[in-house]
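User: Predict the complex.
Assistant: Input components as received:
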Amino acid sequence: MTTIHDVARKAGVSATTAKRAINEPQLLTKATLERVTQAITALNYEPDRTAGALRRGHSHTIGLMVGNIIEPFFAQLTRTVAKAVHARGYALIVADNEYDSKLELENLRMFHGHRVSGLIVRSAFGSGNLEYLKRLHEQGTYILEIDHFLADSPFGHVLLENAECVDMGVRYLHDLGHKRIAALTVFDAEKLQDERGKAFPNVMKSLGLRLPKAYQHGATLSEEGAYSLTLQLLRLPEPPTAIFSMTGNEAAGAFRAIRELKLRIPEDVSFLTFDDYSWTSLVDPPLDVIIQPIQDMGLAAAKIVIDAIQSRDLKKVVRKRFPGTLIRRGSCAPPKKKK
Amino acid sequence: MTTIHDVARKAGVSATTAKRAINEPQLLTKATLERVTQAITALNYEPDRTAGALRRGHSHTIGLMVGNIIEPFFAQLTRTVAKAVHARGYALIVADNEYDSKLELENLRMFHGHRVSGLIVRSAFGSGNLEYLKRLHEQGTYILEIDHFLADSPFGHVLLENAECVDMGVRYLHDLGHKRIAALTVFDAEKLQDERGKAFPNVMKSLGLRLPKAYQHGATLSEEGAYSLTLQLLRLPEPPTAIFSMTGNEAAGAFRAIRELKLRIPEDVSFLTFDDYSWTSLVDPPLDVIIQPIQDMGLAAAKIVIDAIQSRDLKKVVRKRFPGTLIRRGSCAPPKKKK
DNA sequence: TCAGTTGATGGTCACGTGTCCATTTTCGTT
DNA sequence: AACGAAAATGGACACGTGACCATCAACTGA
């Protein structure tokens, strides 16, 4: 393996000087810089970051833990963060927790072992691993939450304006004349960390809308869960006239269920969902969606983390919110008059 | 930062013994092992892999370079590989090359700098970086190609039975009575490394089907490219009666184009595509698809790479093919009789 | 011309581990 | 009880870098 010493020898300078050609080129004479640069190319030298990591105490590596990388939301986030991070000379280690605390802990251990410089995390529900995160932070890893945050979390985060978006969605349906609106979300009290799930009943209440007990079965974030919940809702004696899905993942299951019941959108039931996935505009009718600015969020997260690392200010807490955008395509309409 | 020495001191043993509790527990007395294990938990000790990496020469890290992580094919692959790799104690660093050699080279540099133990690559077209890969290999990184392989590549790979699948697809359409079949694929001679693109004209020929010049404009792998190519094809004086998309990504663009032209599937045009993405069964009609066993492929890739690393046999070349499966859902039918 | 200053370059050491070899302890056999 | 072998444990060192301090040359201003 070529080391900086090989480069130094070849260029006829000391190792220290050779390294400066990479890290602090402004300190060198043009001539020296040139010679070293040539030696580097000639030898195909690439600094060993594992050695640097050992010396520095962290690895020039950012960890990204997502909920489920198969969901386009996280796939897009991963890509954006990966690009942003590479652009600043860091590598990205990814893991997904599948919304499970136990798996999450294993992943955190792995990140710890690799001495990631920073960690962008979409925690699983529950706050089981907050202690571990705090310990990681004490040991020098900058931590930022994304898409969701733990109760009593001391860390910064990058989030959607969740409450505002839920409000926007419900109001939109209400303005169309809907009274019986069901959300595919989490009603479970223990899991109330979910902002969208928390916001929904509040908005309903503030608009003076009833929220029947029968509508308050929480779906999981899975396609399957949303599928069966939707079937169940639409078979009620008083089924909702509008369904509001809180994630694009759940939307796929719900859409499948609606089709299976041979209900027409929007004539029989209106349908609104978070996330604009590639299929949401391909189905018939194309779906009304609330778009999250995933790219902006990913870039912001990467920037916050790397800025903090580079300025060696691990105490810095940045909390940022991004607005969503409602796009109307025709899957929501006034409810049909019935009698 | 807690080190193995802290653990050793706490357990009243030497550092060497303490490390054995982690790496070679079978060498220790039950009692000693127990004491060390307790010390480890008490101190929340997590071995520093950056130090180990330096000593060992590689980082217990696997690099995965995909074409475009937003495509569900790669997202699923990433997840599977990540899980498999974690299960064996490795971390996964991801990067996507966006099918671009220049970006790819940057990523390879990054992988090199991090001294990844192994690398799973979906190369960009062209063989610009084969030299770099060879160099990486000489320096101790095990390399495996996936989904595609470079001309004259000395490395192992994990691939779909591409030719067989194209054959299966074209035959399926031919058996339904189609004569004018267009593929969304690459016809570009320079890029003939694409197995599906290479197979298509061959199969057509072997079935005695004409392949008009007008059908031979290569699409890129992008949704956009497929969209405009499909528009163009369907506006020809003699438009194809069946369209065969070579990736799920292109399928989205093609489907959009067909809808925009208000053509009915399968009455006006039959549609078949590789990849079973979540939307392909949600649209109307649900699409006939050729499924790739992504999970099997990802697991196989991870296993091949890690086995080779652990057995220290970097010369080992494994080449594995996986079959695809054709699923019929109703987007292909006999062409309408016309006069 | 010389002291003081700045710019350019060089040398040393520690980071925490894995590897190799050395030493001590335990066990089985006679 | 004594010996050799095997099991268990310990010590020393190197991996390539970044941080820090040391040295040397070039320049400035009086």
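The first strand of chain B starts at residue 61 and ends at 66.
Let me know if you want any component modeled separately.
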